[in-house]
């Protein structure tokens, strides 16, 4: 004869009988018949090998062993309830921490807007923002120091996973009252022999810009270099020269006055991209952040592109 095994239905019947002191009431709670409850209790007593109840007519009184067994059952169910609470906390990212790396230009208004929406959806998550240049951002994400990153990239990023959300066109920035300000759109030929503020030599943007002017046989006078768009615009503001920068930098620095912004005829793309560690599966937390970030970034960048077309 096959040995009976303890099942959840046995324990459910036992708890129902203990709480109601009646097989009939227990059957009502379990939405089953009284004979079925009686059979489950009888099986449970066979499995435990000790009586759980003393029968006194229609009344049931738990034995001492039954009371001890009930205490252990309730302790187990309390543990299950705690596990349900733990699962709920994990599901809602309670006490989770999300570290985001971002370039300074993106760590301001754009990322703040994304984080605000993310916080509204997941208020228990602590978000930590780390700001640095493109090299720093890529390294922090690649190494796992940050869970994800937001960067403005020109060219390849071979050692990291990236998801391009929007593409921007670089624009020309000029000192106010510069002769070229009379033009609504600048071509490479307009930069011939002009004093030029260039990105630093190690950047992919510098190589792309140099290739554009080389293709048009345009010679410029490089008078200064800067790694940040804000620094380039600040130098342009002094009248040192003209330049090409990403439209995020141009828009923000235009507000400070002293410069003019014009569309550039050749498309020099800068990609706004989410970055992820290269050898790790994407976590639910990072996926939840990316899901909120995508539409916010696309909407903001679409407005920006329309400003300079």
UniProtKB/TrEMBL annotation:
Belongs to the LysR transcriptional regulatory family. Keywords: DNA-binding, Plasmid, Transcription, Transcription regulation. Coiled coil: none annotated. It comes from Paraburkholderia sprentiae WSM5005. The keyword DNA-binding applies. SUPFAM superfamilies: Periplasmic binding protein-like II (SSF53850), Winged helix' DNA-binding domain (SSF46785). GO terms for molecular function: DNA-binding transcription factor activity; sequence-specific DNA binding. This is LysR family transcriptional regulator. It comes from the Bacteria. GO terms for biological process: lysine biosynthetic process via diaminopimelate; positive regulation of gene expression. Gene3D superfamilies: 3.40.190.290, Winged helix-like DNA-binding domain superfamily/Winged helix DNA-binding domain. It holds the Pfam family LysR_substrate. Residues 6-63 form the HTH lysR-type domain.
């Amino acid at each position: 004869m096959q040995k009976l095994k303890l099942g959840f239905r046995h324990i459910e019947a036992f708890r129902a009988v203990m709480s109601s002191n009646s097989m009939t009431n227990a059957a009502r709670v379990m939405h089953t018949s009284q004979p079925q409850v009686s059979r489950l209790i009888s099986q449970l007593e066979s499995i435990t090998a000790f009586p759980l109840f003393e029968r006194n007519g229609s009344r049931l009184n738990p034995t001492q062993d039954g009371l001890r067994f009930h205490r252990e059952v309730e302790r187990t169910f309390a543990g299950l309830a705690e596990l349900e609470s733990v699962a709920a906390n994990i599901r809602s990212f309670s006490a989770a921490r999300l570290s985001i790396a971002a370039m300074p230009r993106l760590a301001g208004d754009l990322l703040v807007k994304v984080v605000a929406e993310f916080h509204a959806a997941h208020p228990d998550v602590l978000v930590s923002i780390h700001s640095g240049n493109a090299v720093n951002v890529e390294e922090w994400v690649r190494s796992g120091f940050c869970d994800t990153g937001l960067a403005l990239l020109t060219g390849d990023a071979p050692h990291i996973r990236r998801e391009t959300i929007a593409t921007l066109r670089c624009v020309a920035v000029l000192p106010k009252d510069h002769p070229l300000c009379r033009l609504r759109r600048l071509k490479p030929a307009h930069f011939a022999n002009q004093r030029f503020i260039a990105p630093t030599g190690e950047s992919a943007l510098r190589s792309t810009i140099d290739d554009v002017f080389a293709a048009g046989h345009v010679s410029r006078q490089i008078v200064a270099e800067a790694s940040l768009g804000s620094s380039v615009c600040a130098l342009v503001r002094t009248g040192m020269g003209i330049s090409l920068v990403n439209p995020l930098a141009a828009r923000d620095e235009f507000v400070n006055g002293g410069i003019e912004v014009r569309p550039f005829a050749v498309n020099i793309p800068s990609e706004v991209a989410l970055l992820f560690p290269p050898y790790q599966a994407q976590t639910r937390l990072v996926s939840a952040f990316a899901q909120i970030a995508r539409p916010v970034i696309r909407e903001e960048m679409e407005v920006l592109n329309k400003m300079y077309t």
